[in-house]
Design goal:
It is built from 13 helices and 29 strands. It has about 525 residues and is an alpha/beta fold. The chain has 2 domains: about 375 residues, ANL, N-terminal domain (Rossmann fold); about 120 residues, GMP Synthetase, Chain A, domain 3 (2-Layer Sandwich), CATH 3.30.300. Strand 3, helix 3 and strand 4 form a beta-alpha-beta unit. Helix 1 packs antiparallel against helix 2, helix 2 crosses helix 3 and helix 5 crosses helix 6. The N and C termini lie far apart (about 70 Å).
């Protein structure tokens, strides 16, 4: 039996009648005693299946967590498949690990080579599907044999890569998060990110269960969330008010929604004591706006390869602009400006003939640690823009500043090899050119001259997973955006009649830069 399940079971023994999993606005709830019973019932069934990874394709809900924990107890390797994956990405993940079983709702429409064998005992809202054809011997799939979970992260191509994690690693990270946040006395956590997101799975489910807290797990559509990058703001806010949570884990975009709503008069529940934000670069201004609006917001940092959370700001130990101090399980150091992490690390990637990870992981993130021990992340090493004046600029830094402006939903900054930065903006409906121009001018005044956005244009639709411009966890696919919007970007670059130091936005009248 894994250490993680032993600790959750011990927590259940101390809180048998306390709700463990609930769906707000309904009578559906599972106590800790019932959770143990259902998990162990399903774990016994899982133990009868042949060795090999098991896929899980389902919306957020109680059955998702029970299936996950049953695999932890039965020491079965689980592969959570995000529901927003395209069919080809889903097939890639399952083929990559050689999965012969998939857990999914019985109503799921799947290809002909998936055969429903029956409902799962203990989680009978889900069925077990047998995958026929194309099976891969588990021992030969390049997967570490002691992997308990394989989480798929976005790669530089359209196909994600699998990160192999051990049960002991997950237990160590969850325990570290639990210890760090125990002083906040959070009794109810509302899951608003997909449970297939490792951050929500570890910090939003495992850590609260270790302390005997209640995990609220509504289906994502109840929260107004659809796919990986769209949501209905009013429904999202109503459900938070209904749920009375003590904590949330949000992306920068969701945090901006909370900030703007609060400034417009929405009252966050008095129970809300801790909002952790991660998943992308967050501007210091947005964090400060959130705090000024009465939202208890704390930025963190993590990677799938590190079991999700690496560092976290906390009440009384917080420095806006930083991603907090490293938690006890992570050893963080800076080498040549790049963040390296040691301590609890992943086992390797799927398909890797040598799955064991080195003792230190170069993250590809650029940053520094200040004299108080707070970690700052300034951007991605591979994304650095080098201006024609030789200045190195992390586009994520400037993009975070842009998206902290009310009305700007998404931003993409470019300008490599040129004298100034340019940007593509996705704005909310009703934002006029004059106010947007004034807001960007004000933002520029707070930035060094080399990091100011000199020209910009708005684009319709926005960046999304569906059009290939966002990764599954919401990061910009820069090469794809550069190719898709090449002509718009070229119109923003210097022309003979446009001085490099002017600040303008494009309304479609600018001349195309000569290609000769």
């Amino acid at each position: 039996m894994s250490e993680l399940w032993l600790k959750i079971r011990a927590s259940a023994g101390n809180n048998p009648g306390t709700p463990a999993l609930s769906i707000p606005g309904s009578s559906i709830s599972v106590t800790y005693a019932q959770l143990v019973k259902r998990v162990e019932k399903l774990a016994n069934f899982m133990g009868t299946l042949k060795p090999g990874p098991i896929g899980l394709l389902a919306d957020n809900g109680i059955d998702w967590i029970i299936t996950d924990l049953a695999c932890v107890e039965a020491q079965k390797c689980l592969v959570p498949v995000p529901t927003f994956f395209t069919p080809s990405q889903r097939e890639h993940a399952l083929d990559d690990v050689g999965a012969e079983h998939l857990v999914a709702p019985v109503t799921t429409r799947l290809p002909a080579n998936y055969r429903l064998t029956g409902r799962l005992p203990g989680a009978d809202g889900l069925g077990l599907w047998q995958i026929t054809g194309g099976e891969t011997d588990f021992d030969l799939a390049g997967i570490a044999l002691d992997a308990q979970k394989i989480t798929y992260t976005s790669g530089s191509t359209g196909f994600p890569k699998g990160v192999c994690l051990s049960a002991d690693h997950l237990a160590e990270v969850a325990g570290s998060v639990d210890i760090a946040t125990r002083g906040i006395a959070i009794k109810r956590h509302l899951c608003v990110l997909p449970l297939s997101t490792l951050l929500e799975n570890v910090a939003g489910v495992y850590a609260p269960l270790l302390r005997g807290a209640e995990v609220l797990v509504p289906a994502l559509h109840l929260l107004g969330l659809h796919g990986s990058s769209s949501f209905h703001a009013e429904q999202f806010l109503r459900y938070i008010s209904l749920s009375d949570p003590g904590s949330l884990i949000v992306t920068p975009q969701l945090l901006d929604c909370l900030v703007q709503a609060t400034l417009a008069g929405w009252q966050p529940p008095p129970s809300l004591r801790f909002i952790a934000v991660g998943g992308g670069k967050v501007s210091q201004r947005l964090i400060e706006q959130a705090s000024a609006a009465g939202l208890p917001t704390y930025q963190g940092y993590g990677l799938s390869e590190c079991g999700s959370v690496v560092s976290l700001n906390l009440p009384g130990n917080d420095r806006p602009g930083s991603v907090g101090k490293p938690l006890p399980h992570a050893n963080v150091s800076i080498h040549g400006g790049e963040i390296h992490i040691g301590g609890a690390l992943f086992l390797g990637y799927t398909g890797n003939s040598d799955p064991k990870c080195r003792s230190m992981l170069p993250t590809g993130d650029v940053g520094y640690i200040d004299d108080q021990g707070f970690l700052f992340v300034t951007g991605r090493k591979k994304n650095l823009i080098i201006s024609s004046f030789g200045r190195n600029i992390s586009p994520e830094w400037v993009e975070a500043e842009l998206t902290s402006i009310p009305g700007i939903r998404q931003a993409f900054v470019a300008g490599d090899g040129h004298p100034y930065l340019i940007a593509l903006l996705v704005t909310l409906p009703g934002v006029d050119e004059k106010s947007l121009h004034a807001a960007i001018e004000a933002m520029n005044m707070g930035l060094p001259d080399y990091a100011r956005v000199r020209r910009w244009t708005r684009i319709p639709g926005g960046f999304s997973v569906a059009n290939g411009t966002l990764t599954e966890n919401g990061r910009l696919r820069r090469a794809r955006i550069l190719a898709m919007y090449r002509q718009k970007l070229e119109k923003l670059l210097p022309t003979p009649d446009l001085p490099a130091v002017s600040t303008r936005h494009d309304t479609g009248s600018s001349r195309m830069r000569s290609s000769g």
